[in-house]
Amino acid sequence: MSQKKTKILFIKYHEAADQQPLSKKAAEKLGIFPSLALAQLAAWCRHHGYQVGLIDLHAENLYPKDAGSRVRDFAPDIVALTAKTLGWPATIEIAQMVKAEYPRALVVVGGPQLSIYPKESMTWDCFDMAVVGDGEETMLDICDHVESGSELDKIPGTVIRTKDGEIVQNPSRPVPKDIDRYPMPAWDLLPMNSYNCLTLLKPFATMVTTRGCPWHCGYCSQVYSEKLRFRDPILVVDEMEFLEKTYGVREIVMFDETFTIGKKRMRKLSEEILRRNLKVRFNIRARVDTVDRETLTLLKRAGLRSIHMGVEAGTDRVLKIMNKQITREQTEKAFRIAREVGIETRGYFMVGYYDATPADVEEMIRFSSSIGLDWASYSVATALPATDLYRIAQERGYVDGDFWRRYTINGGGPIPQLETETFTAERLRQYRTKAYMNFYLRPDLIRRKLSKSEGREELMEMLGGVTVLSEILKSSIMKAVPSVGIGKWGTV
Ligand code: B12
């Protein structure tokens, strides 16, 4: 394909910009990950002949003010940004920098935040266009319009500001069924050696092999189609092989909310990894009701290093309130199997869901130490937008009206803690500290970790974990964020 003249610069915000006040060192240990959204969109645009560049502010430890000359040097026609709700203020800052440094670029923004508050987000005039939902087809359409110099006001899937300043949302696009059409992320544009996470073998990469989620957990931001779509396992293994051979990647984080859907798919994937004799290890997130001994045994043989599952609560009553659709018994069984198969395990728990009692929280703390986990993460429930939790919190007055809408329009604001009749913010913080202490200061766990540690790397991991944990517990912020979906991946 001949090269087109339109140039697109993708810029990833500095995730630490809106994170809790941890030291730079601790924040880096918690994780600096590639932006799959931007790398994937860059690959797709390049595949269609467009010239692309990518700046990962987080990985390069730059803030928008440091990136002006890079933008001017690249001279983009389009600057493409991504935003999660918590990354919204950081995204605005980049867009404002671009408008100041290189005003002729069209600033396009997409991501979960735009699917929730598309019109409100566009009240910020540093953005020229917002994209709702899956981005590939819409982004390509925008590039084609820019390339041909056509009017940009009627592109499906976008929100625009008209010449009279009116914000108009165009009709949406159908959810793409075949995600195999999209090339793998433009790994060559990413600073692969700058990504970091305490618990991962380096260098590492991340992948997402499915899109959509059919479950409706009450705390999860429902920003995607519930229709599940899968990448062909052979293409997944192609990418794993590429990452191992090209970048020496030692571990891949499979960021799918539920990696283990489809026994046949799991079998095909594992057998293909084994057939190609890949050495790269991987870790996955799963629901406890989607794992079985046969699948985990195969995945383990194929290189599965650890499995993360959302447990969230210690009582079936609270699980029901969360609409998690699992039971304590299923949780015990899933972790027992994982342990017996020899896979490292991590559980995610939530403190302070509405209608949970102190007895429920105490039971969660006890339960989390009783199921043989190697790692546990405890978050204080946060009512993110587009969740049932947020709807209920608004109805009951736990948050002040549509907080996130105001946050969007104001460009940020202190994240509200979910204080209920039962729990003050301080009480929740105490419970979270208690949970961490109770879990990690158990002599049996320390003994088990020391005896299992395969060498220096794992010991360093543990020591690093202690440093980060002590900073988190000292910080006044409870950092939230429920064990998103199936289980959080360990920000806290
Ligand atoms: C990987 C991941 C992370 C990684 C991020 C790595 C990185 N550097 O990007 C880490 C672990 C750091 C992380 C952190 C958090 N995450 Co997160 N994360 C995910 C996860 C599992 C996958 C994201 C991904 O890569 N998907 C694959 C790509 C290809 O899809 P995508 O990002 O959606 O992009 C597509 C479209 O959105 C769109 N698009 C996106 N950007 C753009 C830009 C343009 C220009 C265009 C045109 C289109 C477009 O096109 C893309 C391709 O179709 C999602 C859930 C999910 N299944 O997507 C949650 C999710 C995005 N995270 C979520 C949350 C809540 C968080 C945290 C707040 C959790 C915490 N404990 O702190 C933090 C926020 C950090 C921050 N400050 O931003 C929520 C966001 C909800 C919201 N309202 O914003 C999600 C949706 C989970 C959920 N359902 O609740 N997360």
Structure description:
This protein is globular. Helix 13 (358-368) packs parallel to helix 16 (425-440). It has helices at 24-30, 36-47, 68-74, 88-101, 112-116, 118-121, 136-148, 233-247, 263-275, 293-302, 316-321, 328-341, 358-368, 388-396, 403-410, 425-440, 443-452, 456-474; strands at residues 7-12, 51-56, 78-82, 106-110, 129-131, 158-161, 167-169, 204-207, 210-211, 229-230, 251-254, 281-286, 304-312, 344-351, 375-380. It is α/β, with parallel strands linked by helices and 492 residues long. The structure holds cobalamin. Residues 15, 18, 31, 33-37, 40-41, 80, 82, 84-87, 108-113, 116, 131, 134-136, 138-139, 208, 220-221, 223, 255, 257, 384-385, 481, 484-485, 488-489, 491 line the site of cobalamin.
Protein topology:
Elements: E1 7-12, H1 24-30, H2 36-47, E2 51-56, H3 68-74, E3 78-82, H4 88-101, E4 106-110, H5 112-116, H6 118-121, E5 129-131, H7 136-148, E6 158-161, E7 167-169, E8 204-207, E9 210-211, E10 229-230, H8 233-247, E11 251-254, H9 263-275, E12 281-286, H10 293-302, E13 304-312, H11 316-321, H12 328-341, E14 344-351, H13 358-368, E15 375-380, H14 388-396, H15 403-410, H16 425-440, H17 443-452, H18 456-474
Parallel strand pairs: 1-2, 1-3, 3-4, 4-5, 8-11, 11-12, 12-13, 13-14, 14-15
Antiparallel strand pairs: 5-6, 6-7, 9-10
Helix pairs in contact: 1-18, 2-7, 8-9, 9-10, 13-16
The structure holds cobalamin.
Cobalamin binds next to helix 2, strand 3, strand 4, helix 5 and helix 7.
